[in-house]
Amino acid sequence: MKRKLLALVIALALVAGGFTLVRMKKEGIAALAKPRPVIPVVRVAAVTEGALEVTAHYLGIVEPVTRTDLSARITAAILRVEKREGDPVHEGEELVVLDDRELQEKHNGVRAEMLAARQKQAGARSTYATQEAIYLRDQKLFAAGAISREALERSKAIFDNARSVLDAYTESIKGMAMNAAAAR
Question: Which of 46, 99, 161, 184 can bridge 77 by disulfide, Cβ–Cβ 3.0-4.6 Å?
Answer without folding.
Answer: 99
